[in-house]
Write a structure and sequence with these properties.
By secondary structure, the chain is of the alpha/beta class. The protein has 23 helices and 29 strands. It is elongated, with a radius of gyration of 35 Å. This is Valine--tRNA ligase.
Length: about 850
């Protein structure tokens, strides 16, 4: 044992232990062990977008609390880190930092630049995660664009295709004209904006005027029908007739359909290919023709003089032309919700294109069942998944018209007699790039490669399989490893990606092995700015995590992360950082005080509380009381950590440290521990042994949350193995609990509190001696009585059952005391 330095230097200590843990590989996963001793974590692979933000510290640190706890509990923890480094976020980052445009340079050159930028960004993430002390096994790192990930992703696609769960189709697709790619339903956001409802005059073939209400007049050139509700008497006479569109003079059918809302607008609505999902449904149901008027770059086509104009420009121009022609009957400002791309923010168009899809709509019930087979923490988050599944109205579009992504292992035959036949790579060819590779048995002239890449979620959704190196038993690199990790024990993730990462991973697990991907989900909230709004650069309320760690210290920042409960958004709070700093300082100072007494052990090494009690080394009642409190604390913290409720575990541990141990126990036994009179050497050693056990276990209990300071104190005072090695978490069978002594301690605390209150109300120092203290409420044994007398600095301390309750009383009125101050004139108070 050695004494602690006078002051704690967090920057120096934290860096030292981070390097030590990395060098000693204390977090290494052992691939040789079986499933029963393994705890596997499906860690979120952060998106490589060039932005390190507080959310990365917030949610990833919360996962680390559980990883450290499970490792200390004795589990072989598989805790990897991945990087989601392909897809649109990476392409945007590259275009921004390199000043290039993906579509205006050779594809191979752009991909090479992406790979260079990705490596630089990932290094920043690694540094941040190490500085915040994530106990990740970095030998298990993966990238979603690596050769290994491409192979597993292409295996996944081939498995889905062979099971008739993946298909290619030319159909209306949500299209982002800014990023020039199709997107899936999960990547769509409804944004509120102001628009105009326009009443526009169409006419029937025989010249009757009919008024159509629309917010999208620019789609008139794509109008293929006019609909009304069959119960709407205003328009029954139009059945079977034709309408003539204004400006373009196209003849379209007038059709009755019960899905038309007669109360909306004029009750007449045009169907355009394609304005919204309803247009698609009418188009399919009534076998309508297709007229496209918007190109993939968001400009008008097949619209006469409007060709080449952007959509918004066309809308304004058509309104002006309708006014000129006297065909705009009314215009009213309305609030509308527009479907926009989640990433670019651009309003979406629905354009028919060839895309790859994964079948979802016919599997809703099975997906809900798999979601319910997982344990959700908190449980109400499961409802978000079920609401999303129930609201699905389209299959999952997994193809993207981009560049830096996993290519589909597919070609299309040009051979005579099999034109358009889909050709897939053989498993032993994977990973393949159809732009440079060929299907077996075909020449370059006989095939057309698939130019698309997979949606990044199509790869991220198999993050468990990327780690296990297998899709199924027959599609595997290492199926033995797969069985040791899968299903994973824990999926930690934020609530906003339940509909994407959470949902899609369940989809893949259901389709590949009819399994759940993980046993438990731990859902985190957002990190908000001080004003409880989302942090954003535009608002100027972003806090940089790297600078914060330098300023506050890693353990203090980790403490802040531990104050948020699962599923709950938490605001950045300087007050919480102050509390964290106070805790770190208190741990250091309390350890210095406790360590002072350990020299009295004179080489005697305490074992476990229960064993030292059995051997007679610990016997005083208040010592047994605090060890009973410690037992309850270990039991409670363990139960909360097992439920992934790290915040509730912290509250239990802090309460023991601040209240039971520091404020009360140390105060009650201080005199006995010092024993300057040398009248009770055995009692003194009982206290020293007890302080030893309490402090050591306080460090262990705090270790998952505050790894640096606990390791530093443990190293100096206890000189033992790292707190973060497997199996260091306390086992209850080694700890003591007795209800009677637990109750004795509670009484002693009430009496001590009354003594403090007595002195405080008279503006007396706690050191002022008392001549006499009497109390009523419950008797105490002689051991407790002696510690209380010394703590109260009283000459006489005794129980008086008949004490008048009009004396100074506790808040609940159960306990009362009477006291006299030690004065020369013997004045009674």
């Amino acid at each position: 044992m050695s004494s602690l330095p006078e002051k704690y230097n967090s920057q120096e200590v934290e860096k030292k232990w981070q390097e030590t843990w990395d060098k000693t590989q204390v977090y290494a996963y052992n691939n040789e062990e079986g499933r029963e001793s393994t705890f596997s974590i499906d860690t979120p692979p952060p998106t490589v977008s060039g932005l390190l933000h507080m959310g990365h510290i917030f949610s990833y640190t919360q996962t680390d609390f559980i990883a450290r706890y499970q490792r200390m509990k004795g589990m072989n923890v598989f805790y990897p880190m991945g990087f989601d480094d392909n897809g649109l976020p990476t392409e945007r980052l590259v275009e921004k930092v390199k000043g290039v445009r993906a579509g205006k340079m050779p594809r191979a050159d752009f991909i090479k630049i992406c790979e260079e930028v990705v490596e630089e960004s990932e290094q920043e993430f690694r540094a941040l995660f190490k500085e915040i002390a994530l106990s990740v096994d970095w030998t298990q790192e993966y990238q979603t664009i690596s050769k290994h990930s491409r192979k597993i992703s292409q295996m996944s696609f081939i498995d889905l295709f062979n099971k008739d769960l993946a298909y290619r189709k030319f159909s209306p697709t949500f299209w982002d004209p800014v990023d020039r790619t199709a997107i899936a339903q999960a990547e769509i956001e409804d944004k509120e904006r102001k628009g105009y409802m326009n009443d526009i005059a169409f006419s029937t073939a025989n010249g009757e005027e009919v008024i159509i209400a629309t917010t999208r007049p620019e789609l008139i050139p794509a109008c293929v029908a006019v609909f009304y509700n069959p119960l709407d008497g205003r328009y029954a006479h139009l059945a079977g007739k034709k309408a003539i569109t204004p400006i373009f003079n196209h003849e379209v059918s007038i059709i009755a359909d019960e899905s038309v809302n007669p109360e909306k607008g004029t009750g007449l609505v045009m169907c355009c290919t394609f304005g919204d999902i309803q247009d698609i449904e009418w188009w399919k149901k009534h076998n309508l023709t297709t007229k496209e008027c918007i190109s993939l770059d968001g400009k008008m086509v097949n619209s006469g003089k409007y060709d080449g104009l952007k959509v918004e420009e066309t809308k304004k121009q058509i309104i002006e032309d309708l006014k000129t022609l006297g065909l705009l009957r009314k215009q009213e400002e309305v609030t509308q919700f527009v479907k926009c791309a989640e990433r670019s923010g651009a309003p979406l168009e629905i354009i028919p294109t060839h895309q790859w899809y994964v079948t979802l709509l016919s599997h809703k019930d099975a997906l809900i069942e798999k979601g319910r087979a997982c344990n959700w923490y908190p449980d109400y988050m499961r409802v978000r998944l079920e609401n999303w599944i129930n609201g699905l109205n389209q299959d999952w579009c997994i193809s993207r018209q981009r560049f830096f992504g996993v290519p589909f292992p597919a070609w299309y035959s040009k051979r005579s007699g099999e034109e358009g036949k889909i050709l897939l790579a053989d498993i032993d060819q994977l990973p393949v790039d159809p732009l440079t590779d060929l299907p077996k048995g075909y020449t370059r002239k006989e095939v057309e490669p698939d130019y698309d890449v997979m949606d990044t979620w199509a790869t991220s959704s198999i993050s468990p399989q990327l780690n296990t190196s297998a899709i199924t038993r027959s599609l595997a690199i290492d199926y033995d490893r797969h069985q040791k990790l899968y299903p994973f024990d824990l999926r930690p993730q934020a609530h906003e990606i339940i509909r994407t990462w959470g949902f899609y991973t369940i989809v893949k697990s259901l389709f590949h092995e009819d399994s759940i991907p993980w046993k438990n989900l731990m859902i985190s909230g957002w990190c908000l700015a001080r004003d409880k709004t989302k942090m954003s650069k535009s608002k100027g309320n972003v806090v940089t995590p790297k600078e914060l760690i330098i300023e506050k210290g890693s353990d203090v920042v980790r403490y802040w992360a531990s104050t948020s409960k699962l599923g709950v958004d938490t605001a950045y709070s300087e007050e919480l950082f102050k509390i964290g700093r106070k805790l770190v300082n208190k741990l250091w100072n309390a350890s210095k005080f406790a360590g002072f007494h350990f020299a009295k052990l004179d080489g005697n090494q305490p074992t476990f509380p229960q064993e030292d009690i059995n051997n007679g080394k610990i016997f005083e009642s208040l010592d047994l009381w605090i060890l009973s409190e410690l037992h309850k604390t270990i039991e409670g913290a363990t139960a909360e950590f097992d439920k992934f409720e790290y915040s509730d575990a912290r509250v239990i541990i802090e309460d023991f440290f601040w209240n039971a141990f520091c404020d009360n126990y140390l105060e009650l036994v201080k005199a006995r521990a010092y024993d300057e009179t040398k009248l009770n050497p055995k009692g003194q050693m009982s206290a020293v042994y007890t302080i030893y056990h309490c402090l050591k276990h306080i460090l262990i209990l705090f270790a998952p949350l505050l790894p640096h300071i606990t390791e530093e104190i443990n190293h100096h005072i206890f000189s033992g193995k790292s707190l973060h090695k497997r199996g260091s978490w306390p086992k209850l069978e080694n700890h003591y609990f007795k209800e009677k002594l637990y109750a004795q301690g509670a009484v002693a605390l009430q009496v001590l509190e009354l003594v403090r209150k007595f002195k405080s109300e008279r503006n007396l120092s706690l050191r002022v001696p008392l001549k006499l203290v009497e109390w009523s409420g419950a008797d105490l044994d002689s051991s407790v009585l002696n510690d209380l007398r010394l703590a109260a600095n009283a000459s006489e301390f005794k129980y008086n059952r008949a004490l008048n309750n009009s004396s100074l009383s506790s808040l609940d009125g159960k306990y009362s005391i009477y006291a006299e101050i030690e004065q020369h004139d013997d004045e009674r108070i």
